[in-house]
Amino acid sequence: MIEVETMTMTMQTSMPESQPQKNGLNIIKVSSHSRSTAVAGAIAGVIRERRRAEVQAIGASAVNQAVKAIAIARTYLEEDGLDLYCQPEFTEVEINGQERTAVRFHVLAVSRFRIPE
Fold it and tell me: What pTM value is reported for the model?
């Protein structure tokens, strides 16, 4: 399930999960089974609305899907004149009482610069 602000959509299990964060942003959680195009759509939607998104993944396969999704989201935002700036960081999360290390990507919208041909 993806929850972005007041918008709630029920999706297949391959869709990213989103949870509220303390600063009011939602975290888009990506698993190894997430479809990168679906995650990209979620990222693009949040970027269009809020100009920033948080994407979180645990494990090499999930991080791979997240990186692909961010790259795909750039193409989705081209016509909006937006590009993405991404800053990754490690963060500790608790899952079932255990501490796990996650990679969190802070994704920000920036103006797309057009280079003359």
Answer: 0.78
Q: Is 108 exposed, middle or buried (0-12, 13-18, 19+ CB in 10 A)?
A: middle
Angle at 61 between CA 12 and CA 71, to 5 degrees: 80
Question: What is 2-111's CATH number, 3.40.50.300, 3.30.390.10, 3.30.110.20, 3.40.50.10540?
Answer: 3.30.110.20
| E-assigned strand segments in the chain | 2-4, 7-9, 17-20, 26-30, 52-57, 82-95, 98-111
Q: Is 16 helix (H, G, I), strand (E, B) or coil?
A: coil
Pairing of β 17-20 and β 26-30: antiparallel
In this prediction, residue 29 carries a pLDDT of: 97
